[in-house]
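[audit] Reproducing an earlier prediction to check determinism. Same input, same settings, fresh worker. If the tokens differ from the archived copy the diff job will pick it up downstream; this log only records the rerun itself.
[audit] input (85 residues):
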Amino acid sequence: MQIKPISPEQITFNPATEMFEALVTVKTAQGTFRYPCAVAGTITTPPMSAAFKLVQQAKQRHRDGNDLCAGQMHPSPSKDMQRAA
């Protein structure tokens, strides 16, 4: 499993909920999955601390296997799609 690093520019702080939010990408042999994640924090929380927590949440959600993901992109087209082209 590979997790695409999150930069501070990809993290949004929601002051109404006091949550940091980001879309975290997880790559596996089965494909690429994107998880919408949110972790609690304050405006003074260091961005790298929030990024670490967001990545940990995405890893756990992927391991659980029964959670909502924003999308799954397969590493290569299926054989049926290749024949149709």
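[audit] rerun output stored. Observation attached for the diff report: Residues 2-84 form one domain.
[audit] end
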